[in-house]
Amino acid sequence: MSFKLIVLEGLDRSGKTTVSSMLQQRLQPCTIIRFPNRATETGKLLDKFLKKQIKFSDHTIHLLYSANRYEEETRIRDLLKSTHVICDRYWLSGAVYSTAKGLDFEWCKSTDKLLPQPDFTFFLDVPVEETSKRTCFGNEVHDKIEFQRKVYEIYKSKVEEEGVYEINGLQEPEKIVEAILECLKP
C-alpha cells in the first residue's frame, strides 16, 4: 500500500483541525501532525510569538516556522512507511503568511524544499468574514481582519499554481471530508 502525505490549508479557524480529525477516522491507518508543533524547541518560541509575548523580524519568524517543520521531517518520512499522514498546515501556510507580510513567495517556498512533498494539498476556502466570527479570533498575532484578508487572497492566487485542491469550507464538515476522500480515490 502506498501511504499519502495529505495537507489541509486555510485561514485561521477555517475548520482544518475538525476536518483533519474526521478524516483521520475514515482514513486508516492515519496520523495527524499539526503545525506549528508548539511542543518542540522552535514551537515554544513560535507559541510565544503567536501569543504576542516576543517579537521577531519577518524573515526570522519565517525561518523559525520552517525549522519547526524540519524538526518533524524524519518523523513524517518514517510514518509514511506505515501510515497516511495528515498535516494540519504545512509549508504553503508558511509561504502564504510570510508573503502577506511582504516577503517574496519563491524565497519563502525555497526554505522548505527539502521537506517531504505532499501528495495532496487541500485549501479549505472559508472567507475571512466568516472565520473572524469564530471562537477565539483576535487572540493571536495574525488575528487581524486586514491581514487575514491578504492571506486569503494569496492562498486563492496560489491554488492552481501550486496544484492545490480548493474545497468549499462553508459546507458541513462531513461533506468536506467526503469531497477530500473523493479526490484521494485512485
From TrEMBL:
The lineage of its organism: Eukaryota, Fungi, Fungi incertae sedis, Microsporidia, Nosematidae. Its EC number is 2.7.4.9. Belongs to the thymidylate kinase family. Pathway: Pyrimidine metabolism; dTTP biosynthesis. Keywords: ATP-binding, Kinase, Nucleotide biosynthesis, Nucleotide-binding, Transferase. Residues 8-180 form the Thymidylate kinase-like domain. One of its GO terms (molecular function) is dTMP kinase activity. GO terms for biological process: dTDP biosynthetic process; dTTP biosynthetic process; dUDP biosynthetic process. SUPFAM superfamilies: P-loop containing nucleoside triphosphate hydrolases. It is an enzyme of class 2 (transferase). Pfam families: Thymidylate_kin (PF02223). This is dTMP kinase. NCBIfam families: DTMP_kinase. The keyword Nucleotide-binding applies. One of its GO terms (cellular component) is nucleus.
